[in-house]
Specification:
Elements (H helix, E strand, L loop, with lengths): L2 H9 L11 E5 L2 E4 L4 E4 L2 H4 L8 H11 L12 H12 L5 E5 L2 H17 L8 E5 L8 H5 L4 H4 L9 E4 L15 E6 L2 E2 L5 E2 L2 H14 L2 E5 L23 E4 L10 E5 L1 H4 L15 H14 L2 H18 L7 E7 L2 E6 L4 H9 L2 E2 L1 E2 L4 E4 L7 H15 L3
Parallel strand pairs: 3-15, 5-6, 5-7, 7-10, 10-11
Antiparallel strand pairs: 1-2, 2-3, 4-12, 8-9, 11-12, 13-14, 14-17, 16-17
Length: 392
């Protein structure tokens, strides 16, 4: 057994099942293993490294910043901290930003913001939260409460009280679920972990109307679909609907840990010093990485390229003749291939052929490559997918 893998089995808490590969470095959309084998990475670290691995402009910025200043905590000002916040506010519905370290932390903060905002209503019972079937928002106790899958919640029950679930893309069923005691509704504009399920335009518009009617906040979880993944800067732009709060994380610093809560002024003003905090959040190193990442992605030609590559991949995937393919769906470069069989063996088969893909539930194969892939990279992936999917 490989020495690194043997040591991991002795010293790491066993919360992941990993293949017996040790990666050493990456370049663009490729990862390289200790044995020298090259893999085309269509996972991007679960939709994180949107610029690919070791992007030269990103590397230069991180190296320069690391030599200057890495951490001072949130007790002091730094330019990169404000630089990222201004970019997010200037290019979204939001007015202010709170930084954290992950998508789960962003969910936790968003729920706290919503609960405190609801207290201003004068209704002491306005504490309820609504999530949706197949929704995923993180694994901490608060985030678990609005994460749908029972197997994630059950081992740690009781989780935070006050959360219920509606049916994703069924607005009619929510008429009686959202009421004057609802503090917030949280939803992904396109579900990632739950199966790559895009929200209907009418569904998100209906949610906005119901939240306005009952004085509830609308939270869009854009941890996986935000910052260009769908071909628009934000996933909710496809529906023409703005939330009150948006959570971000995965791609924001292209691999360094950062999360963000973007919110309207009315929400921001209920929070006071000491209400929430984070020691490591928004340090100058990670924020400098985020500035560069944001500036590269936030270009019309870059976003158009994402749309072009996503459309090409979906069109070619739909040409694959396989009795197991039920549907190909997604937006931009987050694509799900729903099958009538378990995808675990297909993930392993793709990996054996030098392609990294992941699941999104038991029967959906998920593709989330770097947003910088070319048609040649897409064709390389398609050749493997055709081989493993066309075999009945």
């Amino acid at each position: 057994m490989n020495k690194t893998i043997a040591l991991e089995q002795t010293h790491i808490v066993p919360t992941y099942v990993r293949p017996e590969i040790v990666f050493t470095h990456g370049e663009g959309p490729y990862l390289f293993a200790e044995d020298g084998k090259r893999y085309l990475d269509f996972t991007s670290g679960i939709a994180v490294t949107s610029l690919g691995h070791s992007h030269p402009e990103w590397v230069a910025a991180v190296q320069e910043q690391a030599a200057k200043l890495v951490h001072v905590s949130n007790l002091y000002h730094t330019e990169p901290h404000v630089g990222v916040a201004k970019r997010l506010a200037d290019h979204s519905f939001g007015d202010r930003v709170f930084f954290c370290n992950s998508g789960t932390e962003a969910t936790e903060g968003a729920l706290k913001f919503a609960r405190k905002y609801a207290k201003q209503s004068g209704n002491a019972d306005k504490v309820n939260l609504i999530g949706f079937s197949a929704g995923f928002h993180g694994r901490t106790i608060g985030a678990l409460a609005v994460t749908y899958k029972e197997k994630y919640r059950a081992p740690f029950a009781p989780v935070m009280p006050g959360a219920t679930f509606g049916t994703f893309n069924d607005i009619d069923a929510l008429e009686d679920l959202i009421d004057e005691n609802t503090a917030a509704v949280i939803v992904e504009p396109m579900q990632g972990e739950g199966g790559v399920n895009p929200a209907d335009r009418e569904f998100l518009q209906g949610l906005r109307a119901l939240c306005d009617k009952h004085g509830a906040l609308l939270i869009f979880d854009e941890v996986q679909v935000g910052l260009g993944r769908t071909g628009k800067l934000w996933g909710h732009e496809h529906a023409g609907v703005a939330p009150d709060i948006m959570t971000l994380a995965k791609p924001l610093a292209n691999g360094l840990p950062i999360g963000a809560i973007v919110c309207s002024e009315k929400v921001a003003q209920v929070m006071a010093p000491g209400d929430h905090g984070s020691t490591f959040a928004a340090g100058p190193l990670v924020c400098r990485a985020a500035e560069v990442t944001f500036d590269i992605i936030n270009q019309p030609e870059f976003l158009a390229h994402v749309t072009e590559m996503g459309n090409y991949l979906q069109a070619e995937l739909n040409k694959i003749e396989s009795s197991h393919i039920k549907e190909v769906r997604g937006i931009g470069l987050l694509i799900g291939i729903e099958l009538d069989i378990e995808v675990g063996p297909l993930v392993a088969a793709a990996r054996d052929h030098g392609l990294l893909a992941i699941s999104a539930g038991p029967n959906v194969l998920r593709l989330a490559p770097a947003l910088t892939i070319t048609k040649a990279h897409a064709d390389e992936a398609l050749a493997v997918l055709k081989q493993i999917l066309a075999t009945d």
